[in-house]
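Input record, target 12 of the design panel.
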């Protein structure tokens, strides 16, 4: 297995802006780093589940990719646009119950199942870097755990950024929310155009 290529791909796909990282940074800015960790752990568990599913159903999924790619892209892009709308409409520092429910373990985990970047990432990383070299159950489990852990690290690092700059960002909450919403819109458009 080309380990360096694998690690570069994993880092680029995990640490670049996407719905997970943008939401983690926004939540940490609103609720603080500790309160956002549950979302980050949810992302990691969701990633782990996606990686396990990708490992065991990769061959089947490759046959159906042309059939599921468009609905997944539309659903994921639509959800990102919805999140962008909710961010723009947010006026306080995350005190509403509706806003708080998105900063949860369950929301972080479920986001992975409609996140086209995450699903396609799972399919490609497993098909390209893992299955050609490792097919044992223990290897697939360990790689899936590793990739889930990287998901936690990436969202936690974005959360830390949002938390560290919380005071600065709170002074510029509306422009910050607009930038975060625009990043989500960009993510949605890039998925549809990609």
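The sequence produced for target 12 reads:
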């Amino acid at each position: 297995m080309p380990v360096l290529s694998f690690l570069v791909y994993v880092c680029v796909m995990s640490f670049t802006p996407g719905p997970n990282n943008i939401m983690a940074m926004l939540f940490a800015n609103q609720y603080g780093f500790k309160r956002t960790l549950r979302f980050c752990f949810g992302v990691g568990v969701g990633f782990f589940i996606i990686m396990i599913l990708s490992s065991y159903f990769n061959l089947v999924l490759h046959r159906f990719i042309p059939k599921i790619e468009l609905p997944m892209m539309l659903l994921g892009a639509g959800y990102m646009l919805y999140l962008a709308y909710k961010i723009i409409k947010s006026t306080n520092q995350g005190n509403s119950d509706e806003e708080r429910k998105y900063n949860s373990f369950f929301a972080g985990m479920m986001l992975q199942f409609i996140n086209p970047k995450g699903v396609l990432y799972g399919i490609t990383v497993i098909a390209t870097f893992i299955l050609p070299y490792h097919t044992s159950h223990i290897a697939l489990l360990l790689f899936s755990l590793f990739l889930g852990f990287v998901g936690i690290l990436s969202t936690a690092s974005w959360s830390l950024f949002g938390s560290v700059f919380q005071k600065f960002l709170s002074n510029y909450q509306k422009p910050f929310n607009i930038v975060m919403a625009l990043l989500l819109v960009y993510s949605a458009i890039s998925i549809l155009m990609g």
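The mean pLDDT is 82.
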